[in-house]
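Bench notes, afternoon.
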Amino acid sequence: MKKLFIINALILTSTMACAQPEMDCDLYPDQQSSPYLLPYQVGEAFPVVVSTGHYRASNQGVGLYAIDFDMPIGTKIVASRAGEVVAVRETFHDGNGKDLEENYVFIRHSDGTIARYFHLTHNGALVNEGDKVKAGDLIAISGDTGQTLSQHLHFDVQQCGPNLPPGYNKLPCGQTIPVTFKNTSSHSCGLEEGVSYKAL
């Protein structure tokens, strides 16, 4: 009986160590007044495969508000918010499976935050550094570059930047912020993992 108790305690301790932090819904901005659109074209819908799973206790919550959208290679990606393109990389090939070798587009908004669009396909950037874009403008084609388990678009908004490799996620700029998207169904506490969201 004592041995069984110790095993159960170890399992519980291990589970608690890996548990995701509870989300504070009050941190999410009002959806109706959000400046963000879903990062894909109107009429399309994609499921969220990871919403808070990027969190690591060891890195002070960097990546906490990152979102992964499950989508096939070749999906058209749009700017989620107006801004200026501040970083582009499109040299890597799909399926390379290497950490820090993903293609991306970074866009800086008027408040200094940076939207990051990761895992784009080879030559999949449709904008250049210095370009000004409006929310909804076509900016890239999705892919499967970098260290991924499946093809998807990784989207997040950092509080400043751009953070370029190899220091993508260093604080303070690496801290992601909670966002809501005004052109989809209600999500007052952020997008839910396993739910498909249609861009309206």
